[in-house]
Specification:
Layout (H helix, E strand, L loop, with lengths): L6 H6 L11 H5 L5 E8 L4 E8 L4 E5 L6 H10 L3 E6 L11 H7 L4 E5 L8 E3 L4 E4 L2 E7 L8 E5 L4 E5 L2 E2 L2 E2 L9 H12 L7 E4 L9 E2 H7 L7 H9 L9 H8 L8
Parallel strand pairs: 3-4, 4-5, 5-6, 10-13
Antiparallel strand pairs: 1-2, 2-3, 7-8, 8-9, 9-10, 11-12, 13-14
The structure holds ligand L3IBWBLD.
Length: 263
């Protein structure tokens, strides 16, 4: 019963309400002038992220879902933001991206995906590309292995990163279709994500267990797959035997066109 614990007890538990420990949300908000929202789509358990500059109102959406485009567009409008980019971390197999529809709903917004995904978009990017919005910027890191075109977007001060399906909380993206390769994924995570600072908060594209955020330190210590050796990791991934995503046959062709609304 946390309600009856004294503050010292809460602090000992590292609970955000203790006042002595900053919770993840508070820490994310520490970056002066950054508007940040994590949004959820329950059918495919997909997280969409809205980032914006409080001063200029310029904004970016990461991994929007088609069915939630009206919600996302309304939030952008309610907050008085100017959505510059709707960016995908990769060509998703489990849901249709909202980028095509958002472009229609919010004229001026440009779709973004990696060149290596083979998908269409207004802007095709690669390792090193920088997505600017106001005084903020997302650096692009190429993190293939779940798919060839997977990207991780890293905020310029390395306090937050958006890992798509490359790294999930205590897990990682499957490697059994869409050019998946466990060896490539292992290398991507270790060289491009685990090299970020320990305190860097990691925001995945999905979570199936009710969690919302993790950190480099946590995953380096606790990820049950990626703390293993490469050979052990390959064995785990090759033995997952997961059912195919329910929407894969409609999602992949649509996402190669940046969502069904894209002409
Ligand atoms: N049941 C879901 C699909 C679940 C799934 O396969 N998730 C992917 C990411 S979306 S392609 C994955 O990589 N999972 C890794 C894991 O360990 O679960 C559906 O039908 O949509």
């Amino acid at each position: 019963m946390l309600g009856s614990l004294p503050k010292a007890g809460l602090r000992a538990l590292g609970h955000p309400l203790s006042g002595g420990v900053r919770g993840y949300c508070a820490r994310a908000g520490q970056l002066q002038g950054l508007i940040f929202r994590q949004l959820f789509e329950p059918v495919s358990a997909t997280y969409t992220y809205l980032l914006a500059d409080q001063a200029t109102r310029e904004a970016v959406l990461i991994d929007p879902v088609l069915e939630k485009a009206p919600r996302d567009a309304k939030l952008v409008q309610d907050l008085g933001l100017n959505l510059l980019y709707a960016a995908n971390t990769h060509c998703h197999a489990d849901h249709i991206t909202g980028t095509g529809l958002l472009k229609r709903m919010l004229p001026g917004c440009k779709s973004v995906i990696s060149k290596d995904s083979g998908a269409r978009a207004d802007i095709l990017i690669q390792e090193g590309h920088v997505i600017k919005f106001g005084k903020f910027a997302l650096e692009t890191r190429s993190t293939p292995g779940h798919t060839d075109g997977c990207l991780t977007y890293v905020l310029q001060d390395h306090s937050m990163a958006f890992t798509g399906d490359a790294l999930l909380i205590r897990g990682c993206g499957r490697t059994d279709f869409q050019q998946g390769s466990p060896r490539t994924l292992y290398h991507s995570v270790h060289s491009k994500i685990f090299t970020l600072p320990d305190h860097c908060l990691l925001y995945p594209a999905h979570d199936y267990t009710g969690q919302s955020v993790t950190s480099v330190k946590e995953e380096k210590e606790l990820n049950p797959r990626l703390t293993k050796t490469l050979e052990e990791f390959v064995k785990i991934m090759d033995g997952l035997n997961l059912p195919k995503p329910a929407q894969i046959d409609v999602a992949v062709p649509a996402n190669l066109k940046c969502g069904i609304q894209d002409p």
